[in-house]
Amino acid sequence: MVILQEDSPFIGKTMDELKLRSLYRMNVIAIQRYKNFRSQIMAAFGNDQLQAKDILLMDIGIDEDAFAMLCEECKLQRIELKGEYFSTHAKSVGMAEFAVMPETESIGKTVQQLNFRSTYGLSVVGIKREDRILQENLLTESVKAGDVLLVMGVWQKIITLEKYNKDLFLLGMPKEGKQIAPAASQAPYALFAVGLMVLLMISGWIPNVLAALICCLLLGKFRYIDMKSAYDSIHIPSLLLIVDMMPFSTAMQKTGGVSLIVEEFLALTGGESTHYSLVLVGLFALTALVGLFISNTATAILMALIAIEVAKQLGYSPIAFVMVITIASSAAFMTPISSPVNTMVIAPGGYRFIDFVKVGVRFTLLVMSVTIWLVPLLFPL
């Protein structure tokens, strides 16, 4: 690994112009550059121009003495790597194995013709062929069916290669590659955008919808997300569920279904003669019961109407009642089908249905006790 000094002849030139790999047997894996007061690990594309103080992470194919002479000639400052450097950057740069699929266009082409650096910013550092590992003159080596390419570079680009190149099949990736943050360098901007959104919502200066929209626009401005990632993050089933429940709720109101349920509920809880805390307990318990059979999102939409109508008939503020419904529908602990999160952890955790009942009932009672005590204090009736 080297740093480009101020007077290095490499400064201002692109990777393709320097031809470091073919001329000097120095294969740049990634570029570490300080920008906006923080260090960034960048993929080494062929058209990237090098800048002063860039740190080049390289795979070197020459002996120590020749490398020392080259560093002196090209004004490169060598850096001695320590163990903590590898542990710190293991989630940024790494190596993966890709098998060449049979009967593809890549077969017969040389490594240089595959344009890994120009297209993905990656480098092929070796080829497994039968019981051999080829490392010499890789640029001119033709790819054959059954070859396994050892590819090094930034993890994000390795994932991009696996996603979009159908000629190659990813054989394995270390766990560090699966733990990367998609845009870790932009984390401060993301925290700022989310913090601003929360501040705007708490202050009430603008509607919550506008606050969320401003946050989304800032994330796009900071290039934390792009249009595709934003679109992929939309959970269509949840969106359809909410949209479908809205006309159902309207139908319940117009047909008198909500009024009927409210009347029966007030009859069971005692109505106006009952203390408000018991009414809140009843709403919480009813919401938790409904949540055993349908998702918590649908439960919240359905029960919110009932809570508002109960509050109106009893002469209380509906805010506290709806807040109890919100918390109760979120406390979906008792069955695996109460929440998509519960369903997701069944197989990995080896849980049984009864496990959710044993733990979930206790948690639900605990949440209910705290909610009934705290909500009226924060949202006066």
TrEMBL record:
Molecular function as annotated in GO: monoatomic cation transmembrane transporter activity
Q: Can you name the source organism?
A: Actinobacillus ureae ATCC 25976
Q: What is its main location?
A: membrane
Q: Which GO terms describe its biological process?
A: potassium ion transport
RCK C-terminal domain boundaries: 83-167
Its keywords, alphabetically, are:
Membrane, Repeat, Transmembrane, Transmembrane helix, Transport
The protein's superkingdom reads Bacteria
GO CC terms in record = plasma membrane
Q: Which Pfam families match?
A: CitMHS, TrkA_C
PANTHER family, A to Z? BASIC AMINO ACID ANTIPORTER YFCC-RELATED, RESPONSE REGULATOR
InterPro entries reported for this sequence: Cit_transptr-like_dom (IPR004680), DASS-Related_Transporters (IPR051679), Na/sul_symport_CS (IPR031312), RCK_C (IPR006037), RCK_C_sf (IPR036721)
The keyword Membrane is annotated on this UniProt entry: yes
* Compartments where found: Membrane
Output this protein's name: TrkA C-terminal domain protein
Q: Which residue windows are transmembrane per the record?
A: 189-219, 274-307, 319-339, 359-379
Per the record, membrane topology reads: Multi-pass membrane protein
